[in-house]
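Human: Here is a favour to ask of a fellow structure person. Comparing notes only helps if you start from a blank page. I am asking you to supply a protein in sequence and structure-token form. Write it directly below this note and I will take it from there.

Assistant:
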Amino acid sequence: MTKLLRLLLATVGFTFPFFGTISAEATSSQVHVVTFVANYFGTTATASESSAVAALLTPVSQLGPAFNPSTFGFSEWSTNPSGGGQIYQDSSSYNFSSDVTLYAQWMYPNVTVTFAENASPGDPVTASQTENKSSNLDSEASLVPSFTKPGWTFENWNTSPDGSGTPYLDGATYGFAAPLLLYAQWAPTISFDPNGGIG
């Protein structure tokens, strides 16, 4: 009868003091996300997996075509696009205690950029630079052998001898995804005669 009365009174807004104890174990697991970024030669493709408990990272071979290029091989995951951050191996365990973005690190083949002096038609003087990752092109002044065209000053590089191709600034960043031949572009050196005139 007492329980029934309490129930009826509670339905109209009455409350009652509680003199006992309640013990309950609340468990909640938060889902966290790992985002994978393909991270090569401007490729921004992503994939992701989520979990509330520790689990193995999805093998890179299962992340889709963008993560499986045919020209180079997967090395590892890093929290830094350029590498050097926290490193995770393929299919390694992650505790999923927080969200994280992982950038693929790749083993690229060696690619060569050839620099042509281009001081005259058929000029055979060349230098080269070989890399397996995106890098700055060697500056013209640092090339061996040295490039020179008497009476002319180096300006920049171009994929065509006559300058009608794609231009590259001295020391520009190049992805080294494919071999490249660059021709030096020259401009006449202008000198001033202190006695008047330009020569």
The helical segments are 2-10.
